[in-house]
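Researcher: Let's do a round of design. I'm pasting the structure tokens now; please hold your answer until I've finished.
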């Protein structure tokens, strides 16, 4: 009797965990159906919407495209469309593009800072040991593009 009771408690305790683990295994249509059902029941539908949004390169019929967009729109508060075999929203796409542009700006800034530091070091090296500065590949590249430093020791 105790064994059956313990097994029952174990099953009940892990059933929520099993649902979380299995959500990634749901077919797209089932994921959309469950999300819409949760929203109809007054639940937030966030788990299903998050999983649906993370997926790409899949095909849906028109009805599931509409229901999936409704699910995502209800959860995230943005208008979603099914484009290019995935759900997208203009707002999230803009955030992604802004984020990519910011990453590119930071990368360019780091590259510029590196080159300025390299020029400074090569110019100092040129003042201390011309031969070593001229034969160091990085400094040689800097000097060939920018010319030799104008000040000599």
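Researcher: That's everything. Go ahead.
Model: Designed sequence:
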């Amino acid at each position: 009797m105790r064994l059956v009771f313990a097994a029952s408690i174990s099953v009940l305790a892990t059933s929520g965990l099993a649902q979380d683990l299995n959500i990634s295994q749901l077919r797209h249509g089932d994921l959309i159906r469950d999300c819409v059902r949760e929203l109809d029941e007054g639940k937030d539908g966030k788990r299903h919407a998050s999983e649906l949004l993370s997926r790409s390169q899949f095909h849906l019929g028109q009805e599931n495209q509409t229901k999936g967009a409704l699910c995502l729109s209800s959860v995230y508060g943005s208008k979603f469309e099914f484009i290019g075999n995935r759900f997208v929203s203009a707002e999230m796409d803009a955030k992604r593009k802004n984020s990519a542009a910011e990453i590119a700006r930071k990368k360019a800034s780091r590259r510029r800072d590196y080159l300025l530091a390299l020029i400074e070091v090569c110019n100092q090296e040129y003042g201390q040991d011309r031969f070593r500065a001229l034969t160091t590949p990085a400094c040689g590249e800097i000097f060939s593009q920018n010319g030799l430093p104008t000040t000599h020791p």
